[in-house]
Write a structure and sequence with these properties.
Shape of chain B: globular
Number of strands of chain B: 9
Number of helices of chain B: 0
Radius of gyration of chain A: 13 Å
Number of strands of chain A: 11
Helix content of chain B: under 10%
Oligomer: heterodimer
Structural class of chain A: mainly beta
Number of helices of chain A: 0
Order of helices and strands of chain A: EEEEEEEEEEE
Shape of chain A: globular
Chain lengths: ~120, ~110
């Protein structure tokens, strides 16, 4: 079945870096745009970054622009986000999510991973 | 940026009752590009509705969506115990896509 599994979360000090991964299976990964969405403790959902099906287009929320880099390896069916210069306010559960329509970058997300927790604290 | 405002913040109802959740957009959502998600504690969001009124695969027909322009509604016709959760709306008509703040449906 269609599945997304995130990994790479943990506790990190402010200013440090972390890379999250999302392993996809059960669908043709290279045909779908992918997104990272985060949720701070007790808060709502916030879109973080999105990447097109072929990796040629990338967009970021203002809150992470210049610090986070989204990427993908279609040969490994894996999505990544490199998070640099982490801040306390980046503390959240990070979900990867699949677009509901092939080739699209702006759409609803029809499959979500279970999430990985990032805690930024000194 | 389109701002989505959900109301009420919390809805206290009993199993079997009807739930009506509202999502209002700060500007028109073109082509009814609005989705609804359900999230239970400790779980990822699950897609319920897309295109304002189309049910996602496997979603029971007690869930229905309606609306257009700036006003959208999610209705749960008869609440089942597993429906008590937080519900988010999200538009995808333009960048950046945004989410509403959520409505918690709790057991009365």
């Amino acid at each position: 079945q269609v599945q997304l599994v995130e990994s790479g979360g943990g506790v990190v000090q402010p200013g440090r870096s972390l890379r999250l991964s999302c392993a996809a299976s059960g669908f043709t990964f290279r045909r779908f745009g992918m997104k990272w969405v985060r949720q701070a403790p007790g808060k709502g959902l916030e879109w973080v970054a999105v990447i097109s099906y072929d990796g040629s287009n990338k967009y970021y929320a203002d809150s992470v622009k210049g610090r986070f880099t989204i990427s993908r390896d279609n040969s490994k069916n894996t999505l990544y986000v490199q998070m640099n210069s982490l801040r306390v306010e980046d503390t959240a559960v990070y979900y990867c999510a699949k677009m509901g329509l092939e080739w699209s970058t702006i759409y609803y997300m029809d499959v979500w991973g279970k999430g990985t927790t990032v805690t930024v604290s000194s | 940026e389109i701002v989505l405002t959900q109301s009420p913040g919390t809805l206290s109802l009993s199993p079997g009752e009807r739930a009506t959740l509202s999502c209002r957009a700060s500007q028109s959502v073109s082509s009814s590009y609005l989705a609804w998600y359900q999230q239970k504690p400790g779980q990822a969001p699950r897609l319920l509705i897309y295109g304002a009124s189309s049910r996602a695969t496997g979603i029971p027909d007690r869930f229905s969506g309606s609306g257009s322009g700036t006003d959208f509604t999610l209705t749960i016709s008869r609440l089942e115990p597993e429906d008590f959760a937080v519900y988010f709306c999200q538009h995808y008509s333009s960048s950046p896509l945004t989410f509403g703040g959520g409505t918690k449906v709790e057991i009365k």
